[in-house]
Amino acid sequence: GIGRVQIAWRVVDVNRAVKIGVSIARRVSGGGAVYHDLGNVNFSFFTDKPSHCPSRNLQFLSQTLNDRYGLSTDLNKRHDLHIGDKKISGSASRIIRTGSFHHCTLLVNSD
What we know:
Blueprint: H1 8-11, H2 14-20, E1 40-47, H3 54-69, E2 73-75, E3 81-83, E4 86-89, E5 91-96, E6 99-107
């Protein structure tokens, strides 16, 4: 998926995507382009506006990964999760009049 303000042909090889049958979808949130396949998991957190807190959501995810799977993840100011110098999760969010949502990817397996 591509972010709300991204220009598809600048961030995706559109001709190749069409040729190999990869769909291109635009999110209503910001953030960069993400390739979704069976090797990643996506999380969404829906809240009212006052409760919107991406860092809290990612702290929850980071702590769960660390406690359950023995990983050593770190959260940066851009709301990305890393293991060492490797990014394993990126996120984006959107706040609207009636609420907010924050979503993130989690790379599980990559070829």
